[in-house]
Every structure is written in structure tokens, then in C-alpha cells.
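Suppose you are handed a protein chain with no further information: no name, no annotation, nothing but its sequence. What can you learn? This example shows the usual starting point.
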Amino acid sequence: QVRLVESGGGLVQPGGSLRLSCAASGFTFSSFAMRWHRQAPGKERELVAFIGGAGDYKTYADSVKGRFTISRDNAKNTVYLQMNSLEPDDTAVYYCNAIRSGVMYWGQGTQVTVSS
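A reasonable first move is to predict its three-dimensional structure. Written in C-alpha cells, the prediction is:
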């Protein structure tokens, strides 16, 4: 059974940091690229960051470039999103997503709220 389980969300003040994790099981993790998306209330889901299967290729949305870092540990079947200098506009539900040749798996999401 395929599972993607996000964790690490919560409430943080502007300027703070959070580290999201996404633990994968039920598929060959290293063969899949991984992405983090987010969806704020009333807005469309937005791609935040992408990492290739080997972890050597990464891309970011312009809105998070320089503040967020995506990484993965294939030995632990886990992908991470380090989020620094958080802003209120980063408030959203964050989802991890595995993708390979049109096959996609999604996690259930974790809430991130940036507020003073």
C-alpha cells in the first residue's frame, strides 16, 4: 500500500522556520521525483519545490527561492522541506507528491500557519 505521510507543520511567527518531512512507503522511493505543493484557502494548489530521484536536481517556485530548501534521504524514504524566513503568505496546507512517468501519489497534507 502506497503511503505518503507529511509531518512538521504548525504555527510559527513571521521570520521563523519549520522543517516539513514526508515519509514514503509502498513504492520504490528512489525511482520517483518528489515535489512539495501548497494550497492556501481560496487559492489553487501551487508547486513549491521539486527534487529528482537522486537528489541532484532541484527547482523552486520564485516565491520561495532562497528561503526554502528541498532535500531527500533515500535510505530513509523521506523528503524534507526546510522553510526559513517564513512569511504570512506562506500559510497553506503543504502536500508532498511522488511522480514518475505519469504515476502520482499524494500525501494528506500538513498545515503551516505563519502568524504573529
